C-alpha cells in the first residue's frame, strides 16, 4: 500500500458528547483531510474513481475528509482516522465482480409455488361460513 501520510492535513477541535470536563478542555476530535486533485501519488484514473465512489466524503474544495471523535485521546483518534482512510481507499479501488445471471433452482421454484398455494388456501377459507339449515 502507498504511504499517503505526507499528503495528510490534520485539524483538531473539541469533540462533543460524553466525557465530562475532559471534553471541554481537550481537543481530541481529529479531522483528516486529503486533497485528491493535488495528490502526487494517485493517477488521474484513480482520482476520477475516488470522486465517483467517495463523492460523499469529498468537499467542494476537493478534500477527502475523515473525522474521528470516538476516543478520549487525540492520538487514538488520529490513528482511527488513518485506518478509516486506508479502508475507504481499499473499498474504492477494489473492482466489483461481474454478476453472472442465474436461474432459480427447481427446489426453490417448488417452494415458492407451495407457499403461494398455502397462502391461497388460507385466504379462501376466510369467507363467511354459509349454513343451509337456516
TrEMBL record:
InterPro entries, sorted: Pep_chain_release_fac_I
Stored SUPFAM superfamilies: Peptidyl-tRNA hydrolase domain-like
Disordered as annotated region, ranges: 96-134
A UniProt-annotated Pfam family: RF-1
Record keywords: Hydrolase
Organism encoding this protein: Adhaeribacter rhizoryzae
GO molecular function, one term: ribosome binding
Lineage: Bacteria, Pseudomonadati, Bacteroidota, Cytophagia, Cytophagales
Compositionally biased intervals (Basic residues): 115-134
EC number: 3.1.1.29
PANTHER family from the UniProt entry: PEPTIDYL-TRNA HYDROLASE ARFB
PROSITE patterns assigned: RF_PROK_I
GO biological process, one term: rescue of stalled ribosome
Domain Prokaryotic-type class I peptide chain release factors: 14-30
Superkingdom field: Bacteria
Record-given protein name: Aminoacyl-tRNA hydrolase
